[in-house]
Design a protein that fits this description.
Elements lengths: L1 H24 L7 H4 L9 H10 L1 H5 L1 H6 L3 H24 L4 H29 L2 H7 L4 E4 L4 E6 H13 L1
Antiparallel strand pairs: 1-2
Length: 169
């Protein structure tokens, strides 16, 4: 439940950033502004960012690839959904001590949730370590959007560290 909370907190910032972007610009494009706004920097390691940007050059030049961005918002959403489903499954198994059908249902869903969790872990690693993900992990721009303002204490770089931490555990 705690791990799902981390993913949901990051997803909340994504949704608030998108709302503010659409409110300010009036544009409702099919891009997720959180996923693409990290390209502009600033970067903590300028030399490393230049190297990564050179590696990601083909994607940065292709509009459809560039508009997908880092896809970290998809990682936040998928991890939150799977972890909340795991919590619901464990609650169902807990009720199984009194209600046999709950135990059976929980056991049946557990194998599917295990496979889904494995797939989400793999996708997290793929998006985090893609060329666009590495470029975003070097960005020190603020990524925490509250309802009123932008909080400079939380950056894309910290998002990347949190993602690696949650990916490993």
């Amino acid at each position: 439940m705690i791990l799902a909370g981390f993913w949901i907190a990051r997803l909340d910032s994504v949704m608030k950033a998108q709302s503010r972007y659409e409110e300010i610009t009036g544009v409702t494009e099919s891009i997720v502004i959180y996923d693409v706004s990290c390209y502009i920097g600033p970067f903590n390691h300028d030399k490393r960012a230049e190297e990564v940007a050179e590696e990601a050059r083909d994607c940065l030049l292709d509009k459809s690839c560039r508009d997908l961005g880092s896809n970290w918002s998809s990682v936040y959403l998928s991890n939150a959904i799977v972890l909340l489903a795991l919590v619901a499954n464990m609650i169902c198994v807990g009720f199984g001590s009194c209600i046999p059908m709950c135990r059976l249902t929980g056991a049946w869903f557990a194998s599917f949730l295990c496979l889904a969790h494995f797939a989400v872990i793999v996708v997290t690693g793929v998006y985090r370590y893609s060329s666009m993900g590495v470029l975003c992990s070097l960005a020190t721009g603020s990524s925490n959007i509250t309802s009123d303002s932008v909080d400079d204490d939380w950056t894309y770089e910290k998002d990347a560290r949190l993602m690696v931490f949650l990916f490993v555990i």
